[in-house]
Amino acid sequence: MKLPQMERKMVEELLENQVICRIAFRGEDYPYMAPFQYAYIDGNLYFHFTRYGKKMRLLEQDNRVAVEIETYKPDLHKYCFVVLRGELEVVNDPNERGRAIRHMADVGSKRLSTNFLAAHGLERSEGWQALNPERPFKIVKLRNVVETIALGSPV
């Protein structure tokens, strides 16, 4: 049985309603995958990259990635996922960068534990207000999407 393709409206709803994704990088010997909080603004996906870890080195070597976002019910009677294959680029425009950071902080404060601040390189005690444009956070954006795979459970 083949999974049904999701309609564009359903893809938009998934991207708007979720906050965590996985990004797969090309890696050295094997692919490298990590979870990220994302911001979905005006049809664009934004991510915060910390200065530590493999991500920045891998991004500098090859900016082609696959981004996966999913939703499902605990018993998996209903599920769907989207995979977007494209390129990541660093956001240099201060207004665009600030908007993405503020969006992540706002959504994070409403929907995520302060424990998740560690993924942003922040201390839990700093609170979500510490994720702000005045700090030197590196924001990247998915662009040049060459393929979108959007599948879900049979209705």
Could you give a short description of this structure?
By secondary structure, this protein is of the alpha+beta class.
Topology diagram in text:
Blueprint: H1 8-17, E1 20-25, E2 32-41, E3 44-49, H2 55-61, E4 64-72, E5 79-90, H3 94-111, E6 138-152
Antiparallel strand pairs: 1-2, 1-4, 2-3, 3-6, 4-5, 5-6
What's the total helix number? 3
Query: Are there runs of 5+ residues with pLDDT below 50, and where?
Result: none
CATH topology: Pnp Oxidase, Chain A
Taken as a percent bin, the fraction of beta residues is 35-45%
User: What kind of assembly state do the chains in view correspond to?
Assistant: single chain
- Radius of gyration computed on alpha carbons: 16 Å
CATH homologous superfamily name? Answer: Electron Transport, Fmn-binding Protein, Chain A
How many strands, what sense, and barrel or not for the largest sheet?
6 strands, antiparallel, barrel
Strand order of the largest sheet: 1-2-3-6-5-4
CATH class division: Mainly Beta
Which percent range fits the helix content? 10-25%
